[in-house]
Structure formats: C-alpha cells, structure tokens
Amino acid sequence: MAMLKNEDPEVWRAIQEETKRQENTIDLIASENICSLAVQEAQGSSMTNKYAEGYSGRRWYAGCGYVDSVETLAVERAKQIFGAEHANVQPHAGSQANMAVCFSILKPGDRILGMDLSHGGHLTHGFKKNFSGMLYEVFHYGVKKETGYIDYDELRATALKVKPKLIIAGASAYPRILDFPKFKKIADEVGAYFMADIAHIAGLIAGDAHPNPVPYADFVTSTTHKTMRGPRGGLILCKEKYAKQVDSVVFPGIQGGPFMHAIAAKAVAFKEAMTDEFKKCQQQTVKNAQAMAQEFLKRKYTIVSGGTDNHLFLVDLRSKGIAGKDAQMLLETVDIILNRNTIPFDERGTNEPSGIRIGTPTVTSRGMKENDVVKIADCIDKALSNPNDNKIKEDVRKTVKGLCTAHPLYR
Ligand SMILES: *Cc1c(COP(=O)(O)O)cnc(C)c1O
C-alpha cells in the first residue's frame, strides 16, 4: 500500500494496525471470516469508479462491457453453487437483500412471521426499530425452553392463527440445522411466501455442511461475507417467476448504482467456493464448533441446545456467575474476540445478555483443527474462571500468541 502510505499515513497506519490486530487475536465472532487476498484485490480495484445502473446488457450508462462480464460471472456462479434459477448479486448487504424481497411481495401492514430476536433471529426479521418492524405486523416463533431447538409446533400454530403473508427461516445465533422442508410445508398450508435467510450459513451450504433451502424456498437471501468468505455484501436467489419483481426492487427500488468492485470480489469468492479446499474448510468449521462445544460441556458449562450442528454455539454463563458483557471484555484482554449474546428466555433482557456466542469460521479459515480449538476452549475457561489472576491471563495470552503465529491469516 505504498500510495496510501505516502498520501494518507493516518488511514494507512490504522489499516496496518487492524491487519496486525487480526493476525494477533483469536476471532470467534460467528458472523466474521477472512476473505482471500484475491478477493481483496478485486474489491480494491478500478471497478469502484464505474457507474452501472441496471443489469448486465441493460445498463443506463456507456462503457459497461467489463463490469457486465464480472456481474454475469458472479450471477452464473451463484446460481451454480446453490442450484438457483435466478440470482441478484447487487444488494449492498444482507439487510438490503431482505428489504428487497419484502418490498417485492409485501405491502405496509402485511403480516410476517420470523424468529424471535432473543432466540437467535435477525433485526430484519421484525425488530421494531428496523424497516421490517416499522412497516409490517410482526409475529415471532422461537425455540423450546427444554431443548433449545425451534418449536415447529408453535410455529405452525402461530402461522395457522395469524395467516402471515411471509414466513422467514434463518437466524444469527441458532446452532442447529434449519428444517427447510418443514418451513415450506407450513408456508404452503397457510398460503404464505417462504423466505430462507442464509446469511450465516451460506458457506456451509456451499460446502455441503448444511442442507440447501433453494429447492423449497420462494426466496433465499444471504450475505457474502460470513461463512461464505467473500466481500461484505448481499445476495438474493429466487425462482425465475420472481426474478423481474426482485430485480426491479433492488434497482431502481432501493438502490442506485451497484458496487461493481464488490460484485467483482463476489465473483472471485464464488469461484473459490466451488473448490474442494473451500468445502473441506466448511466441513472442518462444523467439526471445530462441535469439538469446542464438547470441551465446554466437559468443563460443566451450559451450552444452549446441548451442542451444535453448524459453525456456532451459545454458552449460557448464568451458572458461572459472570455476565456476557463482562466475559466479552475480559476475553478481549487476553486477545480472544467474541460477542455477548442473549440466550433464549434470558431473564436479564437484551441489553445485559447472559451468554456469549462462539463461532469457528475465522479460526478454521486460518487452518486450525480440533486440537487447536480445544486449546482455545481451555484458554477461555481459564480466563473466565480466574478473572483476577494476572499470571494465568499472561499464560493464556502466550497460548493465544502461539496459535496465531502457527496459523497466519493468509497462507
Ligand atoms: C448478518 C445477517 C443479516 C444482515 O447482514 P448485513 O450485511 O449486516 O446487513 C441478515 N440476516 C441474518 C440472519 C444475518 O445474520
């Protein structure tokens, strides 16, 4: 970054420090990952200069030949990976993808049924300060208190009672397989559209580590930067019969010019996602999450739903006498980065959650295996059990440093 260093040393330095921070800490934030330097090169390219309102072959501006070719690559690769009839790669992020689908089928006041935020759902599934909560009449389903698994009976009963126009499957903090055929059956029974939001699990699906909703859902939305390992961005997949209405909501409905540099980077990430190496990494991500959850269980921690089927799990810290926020802050002092999270039926409320969310995408992308993540679990347990012991915290920091050095960000 010689140009940047010379022209704007303040921004250059912050970027250097951020890269170093990523190198030297263990990132367990379930929604984060590392995208390749090839993806970063595409995103940092001249394509950021180009206005390309419209779609490949149907642009408002001249000079779109090359950006057309990358958008076509991104679209075709996305369709191939997920077996979809239609793909729109223009949404700036996952939230815009969800907004586009909602606007394409719903009118203000229509009813939607999504997962309760405090049980793992996302802001765009009906939070009152989100567009979805402001515009629609929102109903929620959640997990069973005894099992931590989605209560499909409650979901069906609510759907039969309120007759939503849209049912949303998908979550940001749910550790179990989503039963897409079951969602589809309930949606059909009540005449609702079915949207699957795979923001968190898209990479797992591409890597055959989670079932694919595309055969069942009318619409599938995603981010491209979580398990998918691409640039920050959004993606919509849908049946051909909805293609036109979805495309016209994305542009000109809610966005102007697409981020062609980001779309180029999405194309690169999608190519990577078709490799055996990517698939192995996704399957290892699940194995690592399971090995780590198992280690916490062995150490008498409470894990929501008793384990995980995917890339993340939730540790209920109520029995440990430490709040989620305090655990997050304490772990940051030993270079372990994660986030506090509500656990289902959390009596402390969303501002003071009782748990932490642990995800394995980033450490797995760095090449860590079961034995490494078990070491990380040991580090977390030691730090949480000895919050005031500086000697132990120093030892933990050393172990973290060793793991980071042995597993560089880019290999
Ligand atoms: C992350 C996430 C989104 C939105 O992603 P942004 O890119 O942050 O807008 C949507 N749905 C779910 C389930 C998510 O986890």
In terms of structural class, how would the helical and strand content be classed?
alpha/beta
Overall tally of domains = 2
Number of DSSP E strands: 15
CATH superfamily of the largest domain: Type I PLP-dependent aspartate aminotransferase-like (Major domain)
Poorly predicted runs: none
Task: Give the class-level CATH name of the largest domain.
Answer: Alpha Beta
Return the CATH architecture of the largest domain: 3-Layer(aba) Sandwich
Tell me which ligands are bound: pyridoxal-5'-phosphate
Q: Could you describe the largest sheet, including whether it forms a barrel?
A: 7 strands, mixed
Oligomer status: single chain
**How many separate helices?**
16
CATH topology tier name of the largest domain: Aspartate Aminotransferase, domain 2
User: Mean pLDDT across all residues, rounded?
Assistant: 97
Classify the beta-strand content into a percent band: 5-15%
**Helix fraction?**
40-55%
**How far do the termini sit from each other?**
19 Å
Strand order of the largest sheet: 4-10-9-8-7-5-6
Global Rg = 22 Å
